[in-house]
Amino acid sequence: MADLKVRIGALELKNPIISASGTFGYGLEFADMMDIKKIGAFCTKGLSLKSRAGNQMPRICETPCGMINSIGLENVGIDAFEAEKLPKIRQAGATVIANFFGDTEADYVEAARRLAAMDGVHALEMNVSCPNVDKGGIEFGGDPVFLEKLTAAVKKVCPGKPLIVKLSPNVADIRPFAAAVENGGGDAISAINTLKGMSIDVKTRRPKIKRVFGGLSGPAIKPVALKMVYECVKTVEIPVIGIGGIGSLDDALEFLIAGASAVQVGTMNFVEPAICQRLAEELNAYCDRENIARVTDIISTLRTD
Amino acid sequence: MKSNIITSREVKRGYFRMEFEFAGEALPGQFIMLKVAEHNDPLLRRPMSIAGLDGGVMSVIFKVVGRGTALLAEKKAGDHIDVLGPFGSAFTPPKTDAVLLVAGGIGVAPLLFWAKRNPSRRAAAFIGGATENDILCSDEFSEAHVATENGSVGRKGLVTAPLIEHAAYKNKTGYILACGPTGMLKAIDQLAVKDGLRGELSLEERMGCGFGVCLGCVCDTTGGRKRMCVEGPVFKTGEVLWRT
Predict the structure, then answer these.
(1) Are B40 and A219 within 8 A, CB to CB?
(2) What is the pLDDT of residues B127-147, one digit of tens each?
(3) Average pLDDT in the A256-265 region?
(4) Closest to B240 (Cα-Cα) out of B204, B210, B198, B223
(5) pLDDT tens digits for B147-159?
(6) Residues B122 and B220 in one domain
(7) Predicted pLDDT of residue B96
(8) Which fold has domain A6-297?
(9) Per-domain residue ranges for chain A?
(10) How confident is the model at residue B23 (pLDDT cuts 50, 70, 90)?
């Protein structure tokens, strides 16, 4: 049995396999299909102060080796999460990363303050791919100066729990954004969120997503994600969690070799609900087979000679 | 779960009926998610109504409409299929009511499952489609009324015509169970509400996961926004707020 433990700031995970926000509900949905205690952690559906109904249908479509979604951040809201979901999640023994977002900086700060105070929430993950209502709808994560300020403001209200900032790939260069998170006091980066995409039904000549654009995810985006994760790793000292199209042990290993301290599995949870548990088991078997004592020995071992 | 395919045959042009081993229970109205390819393209599973489950053998009926279902149609007896489920809500008609089963195209599948599970119940089936080729399984119901839009078999017109003429509909004692295209379900829903009949509709939608986490298949109802894969696919008549 290899040592699979990794650290994300002050949080120690039993292994580096995490299920990604928006693909794992509130964890409870998977209770009959896998053992949630066996994975490093799971990220909740993105939470906001008030519940949200999300966008109009259709809001998903399939694309080659992937899918586009425009769910619109539908969630039960922080109150219902605390009252109805969290007690059951705690009982299940899961390590919980609460993903959250807001429409304004004040909303972000208040959401983080509330979540950080909850027993059973082990870390926070901030989604900055949302339009800033106070700034004419520009994404919070679309301006490094603002991102640093937001990170600092949020970190102030969650000093005791790791703050992970989930970066958008829809920028010309991700490195200044990674630096902004580090400079703002963020404990870790997770990357990448979905890539903006579009798909058309040629029969009806309508967009396959009601809101025309959506976020592309799945195996199709893995090479793009891997490159951006590598760039983040080269830019900052804080841990980077790699996300994007992971569906096999080799996929996860690629991100670890590129320097990710942990990985998140997203879209593939839809196809294979127990995939995170399987990958954690396969990672252990791989380490044993390859005589790797600690999974951390794999991290940042890319050879470019 | 990897299952052995026992049979797969084209029952009508473009329509397939597949039977595979299934260790577990399921209720009429529920669905399963099938993986059509071993690799990542097509990526997502396909939701399928359960057409039958007896003695560890489950059956589904599907129409080839795209790449996913075309790949599924290539599978043969002895091949494996990856099955997840069952998921979703089931039909729950009151024990005493006569049941009016209304099907459009492959929507016949969950109604056939219900009829097979409830052989002693009074039930009449109304099976509609565009042409004779789209009428499936009508000989497997004890009482079946067929309607086609082009009149190639049964009555010419929509399936709602024989439905509203049936005695159990006219005297409002019938309880409707319907599955088919959205337009048909909406028409039946409006008729049932107008004429004071109760019933249930099984809705069809593309799904990302099938178990309530991708939130890709929601619909608005009188009780708020619901996931078709968890709170549905079976909803009560009068409950769905139709989009179009």
Answers:
(1) yes
(2) 999 999 999 999 999 999 999
(3) 98
(4) B223
(5) 999 999 999 999 9
(6) yes
(7) 82
(8) TIM Barrel (3.20.20)
(9) 6-297
(10) very high
AA letter at A244: G
- Mean pLDDT, range A197-213, rounded to an integer: 96
Q: Are residues B15 and B132 in the same domain?
A: no
- Interfacial A residues in 6-45 facing B (CB < 8 Å): 22-25, 29-30, 33, 45
- On whether both B32 and B116 belong to a single domain, the answer is no
Buried b (16+ CB within 10 A) or exposed e, A199-233: beeeeeeebbbeeeebbbbbbbbbeebbebbbbbb
Q: Where does A28-166 have alpha helices with state H?
A: 78-80, 86-92, 105-116, 144-157
Contact A69 B208 (CB under 8 A): yes
Q: What are the tens digits of pLDDT across the range A7-49?
A: 999 999 999 999 999 999 999 999 999 999 999 999 999 999 9
DSSP assigned state of B63: E
Q: Give the Cα separation of A128 and A178 in Å (integer).
A: 12
What lies within 8 Å, CB to CB, of A53 at 6+ separation is: A72, A74, B225
Q: How sure is the predictor about B76, in pLDDT bands with cuts at 50, 70 and 90?
A: very high
From B44, B205, B225, residue closest to A270, measured CB to CB = B44
**Cross-chain Cβ contact B43/A29 below 8 Å:** no
Is the CB of B43 less than 8 angstroms away from the CB of A67?
yes
Per DSSP, A58 falls in state P
The answer on pLDDT for B203 being more than 90 is yes
In a domain, B179, yes or no: yes
Characterize the bridge pairing of strands A213-217 and B46-49.
unpaired
The active-site residue out of A43, A61, A65, A130 is A130
Q: Do B72 and B106 fall within a single domain? A: no
pLDDT of residue B49: 97
**Which pLDDT belongs to residue B97?**
85
Q: Determine whether A65 is an active site residue.
A: no
* Chain A residues lying within 8 Å of B217, measured CB to CB: 57, 60
Query: Max alpha carbon distance in chain B (Å)?
Result: 54
What average pLDDT does the segment A124-138 reach? 83
Does any CB of chain A come closer than 8 Å to the CB of residue B43?
yes
Residue B150 structural domain: 98-236
Choosing from B86, B116, B149, the residue where a domain stops is B86
Distance CA(A241)–CA(A149), nearest Å, equals 22
Query: Into how many domains does chain B fold?
Result: 2
d(CA B139, CA A180): 68
